[in-house]
Here is the input.
Amino acid sequence: MLDGLPKNSVVALSSNGVLNANTVNDFVELFNKVMKRLEPKKIVFVGSIPTQLKDDKRIIQFDSHLQKMRKGV
Here is the structure.
């Protein structure tokens, strides 16, 4: 997993499909493994950021298509 991806680069992630407490916990666990292995400088994140990750200063968040529709954008 993650072979060929450079360390200290930019990582892009999406919370698409993260719908309930179980999937949020799984997502956060996988997120932490990826961050430990790749040590990214920045994280481009599309969708809602789980509460457990909101303090990560590397995250640049963009709304998903559904979030934009709900906001009327």
Notes: The CA atoms of residues 29 and 36 lie 11 Å apart.
